[in-house]
């Protein structure tokens, strides 16, 4: 009886071991997954949206702030004005406010009518408020450089101006990744009369992604009105 | 190689069990966290961030859905001392996903096998609620590269500072705390005495 039990248990052990073994290990099994395209493209779309909806709007905020300060006198703790009107051709104002996200941003009035050029070169934080993010320790602040040309459009709302914006810039991240972004023409930022600053966007933004200096992807964000109507495409 | 090793381990187990002539004990346990899994660095949180690396690089998450499974045999030498062998197995899984493009997910498994000679010490206690401690030390084989030591046989140990058996003398339940390189945490099981 005892021997039978022992033999039975031994046999069971061998069967269990064989079963474990037959599962294999280090097998790379691939599963086709459908319907992931929207989730996948979400990350790239969110990234490009940072350029259009954060970099540009932050700069337009500063530009409109400068115009407001300028209209009420030249004294400012927020800008180094150089004692020049920001409406004067060639005038350069610099954001000097401590702890400001865009400290060091220069705003220059160009010779083109109603047009300003803004340049920034420094660490810039992409907002982490996106659906894919869940770790509070995440930090996406990387060296970013850009030049924005913004032309004020007549017929602005009471609260904000509408702008035609073009941007050229680069961002250098870790693990050999970097990107450049540009607008082939300009993006229209239509001012809102409501609490939103710019409620409608029209235009195209391109972004090239590099790995160790070599381009690996070209993506595009085309704005057709409200932000949720922006069309994202990659692998161009 | 690993199949041979497994067959040898099974043969050792069978011979040990068959040669016993006095009081024998066979237990099956499940539970605890595979210690190998706890040593794995899991960068899932980082990879879902909004930077180019996290967007373009594949994201690998490592998990272990199954508990450590253990089967042991002990032979009673003294009323307070038993000795035998413990065999344990656990699996660690990884899923690699790509956030961009249409690359399919890649799933991989690493199996960990351990054979540990063990000594079990009975602690004076009521007849139907028997307390014990265990020390086991032996070898572990990692089949897969999700954890360090792929394909290598290495030292392994498990220590049970406190365990309890309750029930009859033929079939009983067990629960024990385990600390070691194979299993961490609590595990429960069932055993027979004959």
Uncertain segments of chain A are 1-40, 130-137
Percent of residues in helices of chain B comes to 10-25%
Quaternary status:
heterodimer
Beginning-to-end CA distance, first to last residue of chain B: 35 Å
Structural write-up:
- The complex is a heterodimer of chains A (236) and B (194).
- With 236 residues, chain A is of the alpha+beta class.
- Helices cover 24% and strands 37% of the residues of chain A.
- Chain A has helices at 2-22, 37-71; strands at residues 29-31, 79-80, 92-95, 106-109, 115-125, 141-153, 162-172, 177-182, 187-191, 198-211, 214-225, 231-233.
- With 194 residues, chain B is an alpha+beta fold.
- Chain B is built from four helices and nine strands.
- Chain B has helices at 2-19, 35-38, 44-47, 52-56; strands spanning 24-34, 59-63, 68-76, 81-97, 105-123, 129-143, 153-167, 171-180, 183-193.
- An eight-stranded antiparallel barrel of chain B has the order 1-3-4-5-6-7-8-9.
- In chain B, strand 4 and strand 5 form a beta hairpin.
- The longest helix of chain B has 18 residues, at 2-19.
- The radius of gyration of chain B is 20 Å and the shape is elongated.
- The model of chain B is unreliable at 15-22 (pLDDT under 50).
- The chains are: A alpha+beta (236), B alpha+beta (194).
- Chains A and B meet through helix 1, strand 1, helix 2 and strand 8 of A and helix 1, helix 4, strand 4 and strand 5 of B.
What's the layout of helices and strands?
The complex is a heterodimer of chains A (236) and B (194).
Chain A: H1 2-22, E1 29-31, H2 37-71, E2 79-80, E3 92-95, E4 106-109, E5 115-125, E6 141-153, E7 162-172, E8 177-182, E9 187-191, E10 198-211, E11 214-225, E12 231-233
Antiparallel strand pairs in A: 2-3, 3-4, 4-5, 5-6, 6-7, 7-8, 7-9, 8-10, 9-10, 10-11, 11-12
Chain B: H1 2-19, E1 24-34, H2 35-38, H3 44-47, H4 52-56, E2 59-63, E3 68-76, E4 81-97, E5 105-123, E6 129-143, E7 153-167, E8 171-180, E9 183-193
Antiparallel strand pairs in B: 1-3, 1-9, 2-4, 3-4, 4-5, 5-6, 6-7, 7-8, 8-9
């Amino acid at each position: 009886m005892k021997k039978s039990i022992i033999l039975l248990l031994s046999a069971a052990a061998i069967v269990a071991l064989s079963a474990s073994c037959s599962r294999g290990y280090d097998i790379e099994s691939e599963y086709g997954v459908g319907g992931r395209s929207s989730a996948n493209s979400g990350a790239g779309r969110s990234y490009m949206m940072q350029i259009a909806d954060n970099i540009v709007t932050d700069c337009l905020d500063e530009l409109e702030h400068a115009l407001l300060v300028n209209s009420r006198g030249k004294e400012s703790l927020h800008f180094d004005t150089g004692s020049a009107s920001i409406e004067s051709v060639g005038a350069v104002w610099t954001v000097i406010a401590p702890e400001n996200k865009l400290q060091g941003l220069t705003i220059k009035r160009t010779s083109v009518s109603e047009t300003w050029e803004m340049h920034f070169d420094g660490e810039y934080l992409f907002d982490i408020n996106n659906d894919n993010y869940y770790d509070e320790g995440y930090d996406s602040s990387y060296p970013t450089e850009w030049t924005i040309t913004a032309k004020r459009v007549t017929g602005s709302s009471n609260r904000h101006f509408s702008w035609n914006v073009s941007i050229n810039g680069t961002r250098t991240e870790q693990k050999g990744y970097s990107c450049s972004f540009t607008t082939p023409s300009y993006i229209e930022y239509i001012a809102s009369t409501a609490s939103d600053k710019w409620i409608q966007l029209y235009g195209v933004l391109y972004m090239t992604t590099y790995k160790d200096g070599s381009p690996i992807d070209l993506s595009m964000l085309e704005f057709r009105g409200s932000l949720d109507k922006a069309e994202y495409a990659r692998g161009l | 190689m690993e199949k041979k090793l497994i067959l040898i381990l099974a043969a050792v187990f069978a011979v040990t069990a068959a040669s016993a002539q006095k009081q024998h004990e066979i237990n099956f346990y499940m539970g605890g966290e595979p210690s190998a899994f706890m040593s794995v660095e899991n960068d899932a949180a980082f990879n879902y961030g909004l930077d180019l690396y996290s967007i373009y690089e594949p994201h690998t998450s490592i998990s272990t859905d199954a508990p450590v499974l253990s089967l042991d045999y002990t032979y009673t030498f003294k009323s307070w001392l038993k000795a035998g062998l413990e065999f344990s197995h656990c699996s660690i899984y990884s899923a690699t996903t790509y956030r961009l493009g249409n690359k399919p997910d890649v799933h991989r498994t690493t199996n960990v096998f351990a054979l540990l000679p063990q000594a079990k010490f009975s602690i004076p206690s009521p007849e139907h609620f028997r307390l014990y401690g265990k020390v086991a030390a032996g070898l572990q084989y990692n089949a897969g590269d999700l954890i360090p030591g792929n394909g290598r046989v290495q030292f392994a140990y498990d220590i049970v500072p406190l365990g309890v058996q309750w029930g009859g003398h033929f079939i009983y339940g067990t629960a024990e705390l385990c600390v070691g390189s194979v299993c961490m945490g609590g595990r429960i099981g069932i055993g027979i005495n004959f």
